[in-house]
């Protein structure tokens, strides 16, 4: 059984206990090896016989906004609120659940923005909220369960350069949901949503640029990860037609020890897990001294399990880029975010 299926089974197995009252949000800072890691644990939990039912709970997304869990009898969603609508704010999610007796996954992106492209006039876009529904039908089904791996990031709006802009913290979250009895009277109903929200404030990993001119200023980042090595993220412009060759869109690790290996999952689009998740296990390349490089999906997510000298670190990556628009190079862009999870 793959690591993906083992983790999914563990999450779903722990999601079936339902309490009478919603647990409070906990907020903690942990410093280890110089890290500044903020962890929030958020739970919405109620049953129909409880006198007091709390249907929503909210976590802070540092530097960006808030994330709210909602489980009402007529509305089951997670909702992102971004304080700045002019920025490009993205909540990427790999959403795992069962449909038609099959394990499926869907990559979803909830965005808050004012400028859709560099050529947009800014009169449209979204409001300050974006959300993802947890139910599969318009009328919420009687029973549902599943889990989400997510990552939230922000950068300047697509009408502005982003290559040298100060990076906002990147937040990851793991969420599971379970409800039952929603087609019965209230006394039969119960719901629980659990989320763990993590933000590293001292490391802000990712690559963003808007337009090929901006790409020259910020198409790569190398970040030192304590106990692991140097994480190298590259999202270069496609220079085909100029004689310079094709750019790289990759992530790699230069480990501190040759005793290193990686397990990587690439998740794209929507469908059965076995069709939409590509996984591989790879050791160190003795010629380059690298784990990887691993290709960034054009429109998707990665989960990286990197082990060096017996120390494992896990990362989640969102990746979206358009690098081959030769007629309108100012509309090319890359938006990659990386967070520990």
UniProtKB/TrEMBL annotation:
Domain of life, source organism: Bacteria
N-terminal signal peptide: 1-28
Keyword set, alphabetical order: Signal
Gene source species: Nocardioides abyssi
The protein's name: Uncharacterized protein
């Amino acid at each position: 059984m793959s690591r993906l299926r083992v983790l999914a089974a563990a999450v779903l197995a722990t999601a079936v206990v339902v309490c009478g009252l919603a647990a409070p949000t906990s907020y903690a800072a942990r410093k280890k090896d110089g890290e500044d890691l903020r962890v929030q644990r958020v739970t919405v939990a109620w049953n129909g016989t409880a006198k007091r039912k709390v249907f929503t709970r909210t976590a802070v997304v540092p530097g960006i906004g808030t994330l709210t869990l909602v489980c009402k009898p007529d509305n089951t969603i997670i909702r992102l609120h971004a304080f700045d609508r002019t920025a490009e704010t993205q909540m990427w999610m790999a959403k795992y659940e069962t449909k038609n007796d099959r394990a499926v996954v869907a990559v979803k992106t909830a965005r808050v923005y004012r400028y859709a492209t560099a050529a947009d006039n800014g009169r449209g876009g979204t409001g300050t909220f974006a959300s993802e529904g947890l139910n599969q039908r318009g009328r919420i089904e009687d029973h549902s369960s599943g889990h989400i791996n997510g990552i939230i990031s922000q950068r300047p709006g697509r009408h502005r350069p982003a290559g040298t802009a100060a990076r906002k913290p990147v937040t990851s979250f793991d969420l599971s949901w379970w409800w039952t009895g929603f087609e019965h009277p209230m006394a039969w109903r119960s719901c629980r949503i659990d989320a763990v929200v993590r933000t590293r404030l001292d490391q802000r990993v990712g690559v963003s640029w808007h337009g090929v001119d901006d790409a020259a200023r910020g198409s790569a980042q190398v970040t030192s990860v304590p106990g692991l090595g140097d994480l190298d993220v590259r999202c270069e412009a496609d220079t085909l037609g100029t004689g310079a060759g094709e750019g790289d869109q990759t992530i790699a690790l230069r480990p501190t020890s040759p005793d290193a290996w990686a397990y990587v999952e690439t998740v794209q689009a929507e469908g059965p897990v076995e069709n939409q998740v590509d996984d591989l296990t790879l050791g160190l390349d003795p010629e380059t001294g690298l784990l990887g490089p691993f290709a960034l999906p054009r429109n998707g997510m990665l989960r990286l399990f990197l082990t060096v000298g017996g120390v494992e670190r896990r990362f989640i990556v969102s990746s979206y880029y358009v690098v081959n628009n030769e007629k309108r190079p100012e509309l090319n862009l890359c938006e990659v975010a990386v967070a520990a999870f």
